[in-house]
Amino acid sequence: MIYFFGLTPGWIFTKLFFWQLFTYLFFHSGFGHIFWNMFVLWMFGCEMERYLGSREFVRFFFITGMGAGLISVLVHPMSTVTTIGASGSIYGILLAYGMLFPERRVYLYFLFPIKVKYFISFLFVSAFVAAFGSSGTGIDHFAHLGGGLFAVLYLKGIFSWKRLREAYNHQRFQRLRKNFKVYEKKQKKKEDDFWIN
């Protein structure tokens, strides 16, 4: 099942397994992997769902997850190493939570209170350093960064159907407007062009 449904970037291009950009989110490498992903999803996702609404939250989760997979594919286009797990979506949720509720406090290791903005910043700086370092841990840090990137784009309204429709209608209006230009003929005002009482 991992062969067909895990995300293998090289097979996206050579075998056209495009569904892997979606299905890899549902597979995890062990109990610890799925436990921590689902724990963070519960801890931060519950409030994000209340803030966005259930339907919008589900859309957000899958857009950030597929965006994370897309970044992974673009960074390693011919790799045959399989990526699995919902960590891209989880990092998207974390970044969105940090942007929406930066002053909230969380307890690091259940002991030390820290503001969300510092906690999330530390996570993403660590992921950035690990992504460009040669850690060799078997973790796709570019997927984590991609999930955060797509979360920012989502919160900025890039993936809003209403905004996309408005942009399309605006472009269409501009094209049509070029066909119907109105030219006003300007006439010079004559000196005797006035009334006298």
Low-confidence stretches: none
How much β-strand is present in the residues? under 5%
Strand ordering within the main sheet: 1-2
Number of strands: 2
The ordered string of helix (H) and strand (E) elements is HHHHHHEEHHH
Shape: globular
By secondary-structure content and strand pairing, the structural class works out as mainly alpha
Overview of the molecule:
This protein has helices at residues 2-5, 9-14, 20-23, 31-52, 54-75, 87-100, 116-132, 141-155, 161-179, and strands at 105-108, 112-115. The chain has a two-stranded antiparallel sheet. By secondary structure, the protein is mostly helical. Helix 5 crosses helix 8 and helix 6 packs antiparallel against helix 7 (116-132). Helix content is 62%, strand content 4%. The longest helix is centred in the N-terminal third of the chain and has 22 residues, at 31-52. The chain has a single domain (2-159), classed as Rhomboid-like (Rhomboid-like fold), CATH 1.20.1540. It is built from nine helices and two strands, in the order ααααααββααα.
Give the key terms.
197 residues, mainly alpha, Rhomboid-like fold, two-stranded antiparallel sheet, 4% strand
Secondary-structure map with pairings?
Blueprint: H1 2-5, H2 9-14, H3 20-23, H4 31-52, H5 54-75, H6 87-100, E1 105-108, E2 112-115, H7 116-132, H8 141-155, H9 161-179
Antiparallel strand pairs: 1-2
In short:
With 197 residues, this protein is mostly helical. The chain has helices at residues 2-5, 9-14, 20-23, 31-52, 54-75, 87-100, 116-132, 141-155, 161-179; strands spanning 105-108, 112-115.
